[in-house]
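Inputs:
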Amino acid sequence: MPTLVSYIIVSAALLGIGIYGLSVKRNAIRILFAVELIVNAANLNFIAFARFMNPPRVSGQVIVFYSIAAAAMEAAVGLALILVAFRLNSSIDVRKLNKLKG
Amino acid sequence: MVNLPTTPADIIPFIIAVVTSHTFITLVIFPGLIHLTVVVMFLTWYERKLLARIQLRIGPLYAGGPGGILQPIADGVKLIFKEVMIPYKADKPLFLGIPLSLVFLGALPFAVIPFGQHWVIANLDVGLVFIFAVTSLFPSMILIFAWASNSKYPFLGGLRSLFQQVAYEIPMWISALSVVMLAGSLNLVQIVNAQQKIWFIVPAFISFVVFFIASMAELERLPFDLPEAEPELVAGWFTESSGAIFMVIFLALYMKLYLMSSLITVLFLGGWWGPAFLPQPIWFILKALVVATFIIIPRGVYARLRVDLLIKIGWTRLLILALANVFITVVLLSTGILSAWGL
Amino acid sequence: MDLSVPPDITFVVLTTITLLAAIMALQAKELIYGAISLAISFIGIAGFFVSLDAPYLGMLQIAVYVGAVVVLILFTIMLVRREEPDKDESPETGEGAAGLWLAGLLAVSIAGIAALAGPNLPATPPEANLPISQLGPVLAGTYPVPLIIMALLLSGALLGALVLAKVDK
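Outputs:
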């Protein structure tokens, strides 16, 4: 089993990929991909720490249980918002969705 | 583990040791690849004969052997020789790759289903949740395949199939929750072992009915047939598949049928427990085939349900029945009525 | 990292799959390929969970993320399709490079802190003692309030998504 540091490095790499997508991409759905990747990186971190504590605690898994549910909810509501934005503006380019009106 | 062969004289004992090891036998012969293939081919023939007798016909008769038993092989050969037509501007990698992954996903849950006390490939502690996770991947693959066909009939059929399967997954797994509460474990071997004295169909009868109906809807069999209704959608989400692709999808559907029948047997019908004059795996296969018969029979008997009624029943009536049974199970367990049977 | 011990093959394979699929999810030309790569990345993370003695959470991750969230994403992509291919970052303003620098700095600093703190962190994991039967009592016994709040939140999110996506005639 690799050390805890390896898991933190993988989680940090996923976080980096997610932040790159969040800050650079124009398509709202790709930004949602990036947000899901960031949440998954955090989940992986929690599980790794829960396993490597001495004795292993189950509370890390409980947090990830709730985190998976919350991320699913957020994806559902976010996608509904994207649908509404598309209907009103005919575009999901976040640079064009910069007016609060409508 | 056996030692790897280092000299040429070591190779034959190594091969013999690998072939007779428990992992190899369960993985390849029973309940693995060979048994799965044979039973799935048998099920295609069985369905056609059964429906034929219900409809006062005879069914496949000429394909060799008694009663056309080699018909599935004849079908396979015919389908392999047909031309695979890929629609214009369809997404080729997805169109060709998804049927194969459907077969893979249909066969994967068999790794955790126990056919006997030790006849299981992988005795996972979370076996039931593994099956849940894998069967929840089917709707998304069907949606991708339907989209990749780049044509209207498959796309509409794929959307309807997605709605239907997603709607009926939930009552299925809530009724499996009652079984898990009765058995006290998610491990499928322990669930069957807890049914030694009484099959779970008796204390959890409502959830057996709900699971049965929901699995018929998951398999898209009549009367939940709308995604492939012939007068309406030609053939639903696999309209554009022809030749070898259709054969692969056909196999995947029958693998799913056998999977659901085995799952009902494990969860409700006591798995492999039966009087000792037949070995345990034979009891399991017999019970699974009886369940498969009861899943096939409504196809020749009932009419088709309309799609909005279909989805409404899944989300409202079946869900309420499944939750009612969870409540009944909690009451039964807490008042200790079932302690006479060791639950 | 101790380089005298050969790296665990499962870990290397899972890391490669997850990171490559994550990069492909953002860089693929078609959104649908991006969604499928995202699903593969989620399966990789579920593999990580299983290898870290959290099998129930791994299966839950596959069932919820790949079985539900990816389906939602695919559905939305099919509903907001436009015929022209979407161009992402405009090359003349140099945002791609800025994003790479930002993400790279953040990731490298976290990884650097972790590597520097490495000798103080446990190197070999303690023996596994997380049976799944421990998860239930903690969820319902120690943390019942988040359970109820999550149930209410789920109902609220469901109703909210339904109301938002409804087509008003």
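Remarks. The CA atoms of residues 4 and 135 of chain C lie 36 Å apart. Chain C touches chain B at residues 32, 36, 39, 55-56, 59-60, 62-63, 66-68, 70-71, 74-75, 78, 131-132 (CB under 8 Å).
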